[in-house]
Design brief:
This is 3-oxoacyl-ACP reductase. This protein has 242 residues and is an alpha/beta fold. It contains eight helices and seven strands; from the N terminus they run E-H-E-H-E-H-E-H-E-H-H-E-H-H-E. 41% of the residues lie in helices and 18% in strands. A seven-stranded parallel sheet has the order 3-2-1-4-5-6-7, with helices on both faces. The protein binds NADP nicotinamide-adenine-dinucleotide phosphate.
Length: 242
């Protein structure tokens, strides 16, 4: 039997990240999940048979300190940690430039720095043929303020990463449309909003975390060796990549 691969999934304690981690663990891979809330993370890791390493992926010192607990070889890195920080913040009042700057900074840190820092920290441990998959969003194409802008930045960063890896591995972005059954929306979804979003999809429904997980697993497979530097959209047709 071939050696088990070492998989790291950031934000793997809930939602899409948990579904990704569960798929890899069920396939017999060695999985490490990360996240800030130790209790949530450890309970999730125990349920799916993964290791838990708790740290803030957007904090350089915390990422550095976590290295001691992360695997010494990484075959697959899934940069999934993130979310739209505007959904848990009070919107800045018109003219409050400091508040506006803070809101943009928060989405940049949560979605861009988290991936950039963890990838840079683990890069010396990347195995030959490493697979890096980073969660983008349909928002990179359709807007959504600083969140969409942060996810668009991830796409540009991924191009450089794929180029740097060259023949030594692949780097791709998976960009979901609306996915329910995660903590992403923090209870802010209204029926009206959801109906409007779902009406954009050809299949008239939201995505499921497991469907994103299956796409990530395909990109992490040996068969996907020639697929790099791409953005793979998973949205039921709500955005047509061209
Ligand atoms: N759901 C959607 O409709 C949708 C659509 C497009 C893209 N996405 C993207 O998919 C990814 C997963 O989101 P989700 O829907 O599964 O939401 P979620 O359930 O809120 O998952 C996000 C995970 O990331 C962790 N996280 C957030 N910031 C972190 C940080 N600074 N350091 C470490 N961990 C952090 C969270 O755990 P802690 O809070 O404990 O740290 C949480 O487990 C995100 O990148 C999101 O932007 C989601």
């Amino acid at each position: 039997m071939s050696e088990q691969r070492e998989i790291v999934v950031t934000g793997g304690g809930t939602g899409i990240g948990l579904a990704i981690a569960a798929r890899f663990a069920a396939a017999g891979e060695r999985v490490t999940v990360t996240g800030r809330r130790k209790d949530v993370l450890e309970a999730a890791a125990e349920r799916i048979g993964a290791r838990a390493v708790s740290f803030d992926a957007s904090d350089p010192a915390a990422v550095q300190a976590a290295l001691a607990d992360l695997p010494s070889r990484v075959d697959v890195l899934v940069n999934n940690a993130g979310g739209n920080t505007d959904r848990v913040r009070e919107a800045p009042a018109a003219g409050d430039l400091k508040g506006l700057a803070d809101a943009w900074q928060a989405n940049f840190e949560a979605n861009v720095l988290s991936a950039v820092l963890v990838t840079a920290a683990l890069k010396p441990r990347f195995a030959d043929n490493v697979r890096v998959v980073t969660l983008g969003s349909i928002a990179a194409k359709q807007g959504s303020g600083s969140y969409g802008a942060a996810k668009a930045a991830i796409e540009a960063w991924n191009t450089d990463l794929a180029r740097q890896l060259g023949a030594g591995g692949t780097a791709n972005v998976v960009a979901p449309g609306v996915v329910l059954d995660t903590e992403f929306f923090h209870g802010t979804v209204t029926e009206e909003w959801l109906d409007a979003r779902i009406s954009l999809a050809f299949n008239r429904r939201a995505g499921r975390p497991e469907e994103i997980a299956d796409t990530v697993r395909f990109l992490a497979a040996p068969e996907a060796a020639h697929l790099t530097g791409q953005v793979v959209h998973v949205n039921g047709g709500a955005y047509g990549a061209r």
